[in-house]
């Protein structure tokens, strides 16, 4: 049974919403708003076509929804054309590199990564000249989440100048500077429960390494289709001196993706909590 953390759609299905005229938040063009997915629909599908998600979490009543999150007050067709083109390209790239479950085919377990001795973690070095463009795709997700007025995304708040910079980067196709919300990826190396989750701010624990003590890094965390992306929220002028490397998208043709079994992941623990809450839900 597919579950979603928080809510995955509005009170109407796509096609049933009333589309108004307005100004596109991405391009500034005036026209009719369109239903625009905040995370690509192809990466947030239920396990069986046509089946609903059960929305749950945050103490809310479990409800059935038939589509992932979309916003009908975010972009007009001019903005959707930009996002749709970027989404279509990124989905193919993610599946090609088996970074998402929907690119695995019949596999139930990922292979081809180096295990870190004594841990459940692994490292997947991947080579591709297009990591910078993939970074742009993830930045577009951050922009959508922060620019949307949907209540499910209310935690995704950015300073207005950061939101404007993201908007310009998406419109112009320029993913630099790299110190502006650097992105690292973690994937689940075994198949688990199909579910969605709203992005949220968090703190990421970084273990001790050499002379660097253990510490916490503020991030935004996104999840879809077995892939987790972390956006470093530290100021860009601080990150210029942070010695960021190929653990982050776009620094070279090589990126190192961390991998962990679903059974050992936060995702598994989180969805168990959500399901338990849904099954035992009682009005306050």
- Broad structural category: alpha+beta
pLDDT averaged residue by residue: 84
The portion of residues forming beta strands comes to 25-35%
Q: Would you report the number of β strands?
A: 14
Describe the structure concisely.
This protein is an alpha+beta fold and 284 residues long.
Describe this structure in words.
With 284 residues, the protein is an alpha+beta fold. It has five helices and 14 strands. The chain has helices spanning 77-96, 131-147, 160-172, 236-239, 266-279, and strands at residues 3-5, 21-23, 30-32, 36-37, 53-57, 60-65, 70-71, 114-115, 122-127, 183-188, 195-206, 215-224, 227-232, 254-260. The strands form three sheets. Strands 6-5-1-11-12-13-10-14-9-8 form a ten-stranded mixed sheet, sandwiched between helices. 38% of the residues are buried. Residues 1-16 and 277-281 have low confidence and may be disordered.
Produce the secondary structure layout.
Blueprint: E1 3-5, E2 21-23, E3 30-32, E4 36-37, E5 53-57, E6 60-65, E7 70-71, H1 77-96, E8 114-115, E9 122-127, H2 131-147, H3 160-172, E10 183-188, E11 195-206, E12 215-224, E13 227-232, H4 236-239, E14 254-260, H5 266-279
Parallel strand pairs: 1-5, 1-11, 10-14
Antiparallel strand pairs: 2-3, 4-7, 5-6, 8-9, 9-14, 10-13, 11-12, 12-13
Helix pairs in contact: 1-2, 2-3
